[in-house]
Amino acid sequence: MALTLTSRAFAEGQAIPSKFARDGENLMPELSWTGVPNGTASLALVVEDPDAPSGTFRHLAVYDIPPDWDGLPRSVDTGSDTNLRFARNDFGNARYDGPQPPKGHGPHHYHFRLAALDVPTINLPPDVGAERILQEARKHAIEEAELVGIYERH
Q1: SS3 of 132, please?
Q2: Could you give the CA distance from residue 110 to residue 97 in angstroms, rounded to a whole number?
Q3: Which of 121, 129, 11, 12 minimizes the C-alpha distance to 61?
Q4: Which three-class secondary structure state does DSSP give residue 31?
Q5: Nearest to 120 by CA among 96, 137, 101, 103
Q6: Which of 100, 140, 148, 102 is nearest to 121 (CA)?
Q7: Strands (E), the chain
Q8: CA 129 to chain centre
């Protein structure tokens, strides 16, 4: 069974509701996954917008997710009851910051990328940023899953 990533907030290729956008309530959407492969020691999740005017923009990096978890609850980034590690996103925050494309720039595609890793931890400080976390995660990826949502500001 392949690693699969879903959300109750939006379906693959569909619009991300505004409450999950930075100009809305800026809530991190609930995410679920199935099919974690054997040998997974941890999981990592990165959210990217490749349609950003200045190049790919990263909205979230969360890593060292335990391999027996089957998802992340909504707004897990603002809770204090987990041992998850959050890297600095491209806004400079160690949490989720939702879509905020320029007005009139057209629809942007937000790629939620989940990687099953063969290491229990990514040994980098969170201030290295989301891009560096993704680079390191890909070195240890057993399998990846992706969920794409769309957001546009008018």
Answers
A1: helix
A2: 12
A3: 129
A4: strand
A5: 137
A6: 140
A7: 4-6, 31-34, 42-49, 57-65, 71-72, 85-86, 108-117, 141-151
A8: 13
- In Å, the largest CA–CA distance within the chain is 45
Long-range contacts of 122-126 (CB under 8 A, 24+ apart): 122/42, 122/44, 122/63, 122/64, 122/85, 124/87, 126/85, 126/86, 126/87, 126/88, 126/94
- Tokens representing residue 142 in the block: 């057993």
**Residue 81: is its pLDDT beyond 70?**
no
Distance CA 144, CA 154 (A): 32
Dihedral sign computed on CA atoms, order 151, 57, 125, 36: positive
Which amino acid belongs to residue 23? D
Cα 139 to chain centroid, rounded: 17
> Considering only CA atoms, which of 67, 56, 57, 61 is closest in space to residue 46?
61
The region, left, alpha or beta by phi > 0 then psi within -120 to 50, assigned to residue 120 is alpha
Please, which residues bridge with residue 109 across strands? Answer: 150
Question: What does the pLDDT look like over 55-80, one tens digit per residue?
Answer: 999 999 999 999 999 999 998 988 77
Look up the pTM and report it: 0.95
